[in-house]
Amino acid sequence: MAFLDFVPNLGRQVLLTIPNLGAAARFLLRSLVAVINRHFSIQQLLKQVYGFGVRSLLLMIVAAFFTGMVLGFQGYYALVRFGATSALGTLVALSLLRELGPVLTALLFAGRAGSALTAEISSMKATEQLNAMEMMAVNPFAWVVAPRLWAGIIVVPILCAIFDLVGIFGGYLISVPVLGVDGGTFWAQMQSNVTFSGDILTGLFKALCFGLVVTWIAAWQGYAAQPTAEGVGNATTRSVVTASLAVLGLDFILTAFLFT
Amino acid sequence: MAAEALVELENVHFSRGPHPVLAGVDMRIPHGAIVSLMGASGGGKTTMLNLMAGTLAPQSGRIRVAGQDLHALDFEDLYRLRRRMGMLFQHSALFTDFSAFENVAFPLRRHFRLNESILRKLVLMKLEAVGLRGAAGLMPAELSGGMARRVALARAVVMDPMLIFYDEPFTGLDPISVGIIATLIRRLNDALGATSILVSHDVQETFSIADYGYILAGGKIIAEGSPEALRASDSELARQFLSGQPDGPVPFHYPARDNYVTALTGSAAAGEVI
Asked: Is residue B270 part of a domain?
């Protein structure tokens, strides 16, 4: 019986999910296009860039520093067995620029800014602030959603670049002064093996895609939340979980396309 | 009700999923009047306000506001019409990151490029009208429920609307605040030459300011007329509602599958869904 129930339940779940995906896609389109609406405000955009970016900076720097140091340690102990510690700079830089920088930045961003964004929009919905805007003939997509979405798209690549830099510096501090790798070799190997368009730009492009996806999911979860205290809590949890999984899934797809 | 109608509803049907909320509602709101819409909680009153404001669309029927068929309007025309409407929300819906002054200034800033000194005068005039000029710099978290409702009222009328919606304006307020809000609704409606639609289940306060009233039950208008006419209504449902009787056409008991004795002696818990 349980198996017989499974098939219609799966079908029902799929039928429920498809309209939701359509609604989320329409939401994204309306939010992106709202940038040309007259109620879109550059001031609001800058405020969000500050909120998402500057306020996430300390978290990113600390996380990047430790990630870089751990990479230095692990890379050193793996390479020293083959006498290849001269490649440590390249290993640290490529790991950060191609994968860890964009992915960890996006995951931290989803936890730090994405959750706050979902909670903010869902609370605005629960307290009728979005309805109030509609009634004042002010498009909430232009005033509330679009500045946040565009701020996410702008901020995540910048945070990722900072993450990469701090991470590489952390890797350097462990590799050169602590573990005794030659500093000149560390930087020279990195310089000759890391390409600007192939590694740095593609990593930042990944971050841009993650920024869009994380902010989209966070804003959509807030907008579609049940307007109750429980609904706000559920939406916030769902936002972080969905955005994190989406980042990891999308990373696989982007890596397959960009680095082959 | 002889004056020309500002808002007209004709045979409006609306349902949420399989549940019908409105089943053929006809209403006529004349220019300049304060019209109350009363009914039990969850009876579709707020839905009706949203339909008249164009934030919801009916499944069938027609709604006309200022001579325009609301649901035939495109997005831009609907927004243009909404600039001439104001709404006081049940929970005030003030923007929590703005001060009282900025909340009231918000619609003006978004729609007009006003000189800062003119804008300041307009906002302070509205705050003065609701008695809160002195609270202009306070944040919504620093305002009491009654004060927040008054700031929201100042914001609802800052564009001098032709039509003002009030969604449960008296709910959760102390008697002094209720009296203040009721007086303000009447005073602002008359001073602005506006038309007001007041959704409430506070019979006494509503009847003290309304010119005309409708009672909504079971998705239909069951009684209408002046407050005096409604009090003398033949409808048992209207009488139960207006006198606050716990039992009547609207039953006290939620329908149960078994009778009381069977439920007590049976093994399934009362109200248990099996």
From this structure: no
Phi, psi of A30 (to 5 degrees): -60, -40
Predicted model pTM = 0.84
Q: Does A27 map to a domain?
A: no
- At position B44, the amino acid (one-letter code) is G
Number of independent structural domains in chain B: 1
**Does residue A26 form part of some domain?**
no
Residue B156 falls inside a structural domain: yes
- Inter-residue contact A85 to A209 (CB < 8 Å): no
Q: Answer whether residue B135 is part of any domain.
A: yes
Sign of the alpha-carbon torsion through A59, A63, A66, A72? negative
How far apart (Å, rounded) are the C-alpha atoms in residues A221 and A96? 30
Residue A10 domain flag = no
> pLDDT tens digit string along A94-124?
999 999 999 999 999 999 999 999 999 999 9
* Structural domain boundaries, residue A230: 45-258
Phi and psi, residue B8, nearest 5°: -135, 130
Q: Do A132 and B89 touch (CB under 8 A)?
A: yes
Non-local CB neighbours of A87 within 8 Å, separated by 6+ positions: A79, A189
- B80 contacts chain A (CB < 8 A): yes
CB pairs under 8 A between A and B: 48
Q: Rounded to whole angstroms, what are the CA distances from B82 to A134, B30, B70?
A: 8, 18, 10
Domains: count for chain A: 1
Q: What is the pLDDT of residues A63-105, one digit of tens each?
A: 999 999 999 999 999 998 988 888 999 999 999 999 999 999 9
Chain A residues whose CB is inside 8 A of the B90 CB are 128
CB A255 within 8 A of CB A54: no
Q: What is the distance between the alpha carbons of residues A157 and A163, in angstroms, rounded to a whole number?
A: 10
First to last CA, chain B: 52
CATH of the domain at B41: 3.40.50.300
Q: Tokens standing for A79?
A: 């390479």
Cα(A112)–Cα(A116) distance, integer angstroms: 7
Residue A250 in any domain: the answer is yes
Touching check for B88 and chain A: CB below 8 Å? Answer: no
Name the β-bridge partners of A13: none
Which residue range(s) make up the domain with B77?
Answer: 5-265
Q: What is the pLDDT of residues B96-146, one digit of tens each?
A: 999 999 999 999 999 998 999 999 999 999 999 888 899 999 999 999 988
The whole-angstrom distance between residue B134's C-alpha and the CA centroid of its chain comes to 27
Query: Is B273 domain-assigned?
Result: no
